[in-house]
Amino acid sequence: MENITVILMLLFGIAFMGLLSKRFNFPFPIVLVLSGVLISIIPGLPVIALDPEIVFIIFLPPLLYYGAWYTSWHDFKAAIRPITLAAIGLVLFTTTAVAVAAHYLIADMSWPLAFLIGAIVSPPDAVAATSITKGLGLQPRLITILEGESLLNDASGLIAYRYALTAITAGNFFFWQASVSFLIMATAGIAIGLALGYAMYLIHKYFVCDPIIEVTLTFLTPFAAYLLAEHFHFSGVLAVVATGLYLSFRSSKIFTHQSRMMAMSVWDVVVFILNGLIFVLIGLQLRGVMAGISEYSTTSLVIWGLLISFIVIAVRFIWVVPATLVPRMLSKKIRTKEPFDPRNMVVFGWAGMRGVVSMAAALALPLTLADGTAFPHRNLIIYFTFCVIVSTLVLLGLTLPWLIRKLKIEPYSAYAEEYEVRNLVVSQTITHIEDNLSLLQDELLHNIKSKYEVKYNRLQKTELPANYFGKGETLGTDIFNQFTKLQIDLIQVERQKLEQLHLEGNNEEVLRKIERELDLEETRLTMEMYNE
């Protein structure tokens, strides 16, 4: 009970740190890793031993599903070549490079253990990449590659992790068997994910009619995909990603507006808590981890941690050059269709932040081998993982905005795309009213048509140029935004009256219903505005 109280209080503290990160526009993944360091040095906190068997089940399925859900299938498919090269080739290259370094750096580090370290630290983190690159104005294709890589490389990294773990626990490993098994596990995992996704699609579309049940099913689906695939010894990670991509692409057909709004809120909270919880747990274990590697000198530990981190960072830069240039040299189609900017190669290399998945993989290492002996170098592996996460998140994450400014990369903006989409939607709706609702009562027809005509006229006065890509000039968004701001101000007047009625003791159920309507309307208006 005492441990639960400590964890809850620390989560409360991380939530407060999250408020500060929002207030001062500081990347939350960096806040998390620094919070983990801070927790580890607070005297008097208990050292909590986490059951390794439940780490993957608790953390991986929802985090991967969340990442897959917010990935565009069209963009993902269009960038599948660079994503695959990074998710498989780069992960295996990083795993090998780290393994070689670890094996020769540490006298009693066996090859299987060295490859295990490499597999754990090789995959960048989707949540970290999205959080840190958000708002930097990177090109959509580069963002898609970073996010897609972070989804698929978890699968390749964790499959390599599994085989290295097997080699340690079973004492045997054959490369050709691992290669064949990799293909089988990956293909079968994707197949199971798609099959479950289709089954859930039918259930959502034809049977579920309650928003709470729909949201509950979205929360249970990634666990079902992961456990089903793992039960048959296939890739649970790829099963979760495949299910998420499949259902996300069809979400507009199967979810009601209530379900979508509720699901987004629930998932944002769940992912926030899981990210905070994993770093609370590592913070509470870090003191014990450091005690478990006390036989090594502090100097050796610092040097090893820095070298492993440097290799993880450097290998990414080494890989990106041939992975980008060789396909362009060999294919005229790629040179014609895909724009090339060497500065994006630098940004890609700089954006290899590690995070929750690597930490979960390290914490999931078994405490003992089958014969009851302690798992070799478990504490040292966790230490290396934390070093890589700290160095990549803090060093690369904090300097990425500076790098983009130094490279003078012209920031991309979706304003023009948003403007065009809004124009198309409103114009189509007005056309539908004119073609199909002309027999309505005149007053009703006028009222409904004028609503969309107001929207259309406001759009025409925004004067957003079609080729705008965020060059910093003053835009004509005021005409669009002023009307929206005025409506939000008037909603506050309505709220003040509701509060007065609440204090006077009017019907609470009625007041809460109207308050909910105002909440939804204000949310819609806030999202509608062009942020300057």
How would you describe this protein?
- It contains 22 helices and no strands.
- By secondary structure, the chain is mainly α.
- It folds into two domains: 2-406, Up-down Bundle (Na+/H+ antiporter like fold); 415-528.
Overview features:
mainly alpha, Na+/H+ antiporter like fold, 2 domains, 0% strand
Question: Brief description of this entry?
Answer:
By secondary structure, the protein is mainly α. The chain has helices at residues 2-23, 28-41, 52-69, 73-78, 80-105, 111-121, 126-133, 140-170, 175-206, 211-231, 236-249, 251-254, 257-292, 298-330, 332-337, 342-350, 356-363, 378-406, 415-436, 442-460, 478-503, 508-528.
Alpha-beta classification: mainly alpha
Q: What's the architecture of the largest domain, going by CATH?
A: Up-down Bundle
Unreliable parts? 465-476
Bin the helical content: over 70%
Whole-number count of domains? 2
One letter per element, helices H and strands E, the order comes to: HHHHHHHHHHHHHHHHHHHHHH
Distance between the termini: 49 Å
Helices, by number, come to 22
Radius of gyration (Å): 26 Å
Number of E-state strands: 0
Percent of residues in beta strands = under 5%
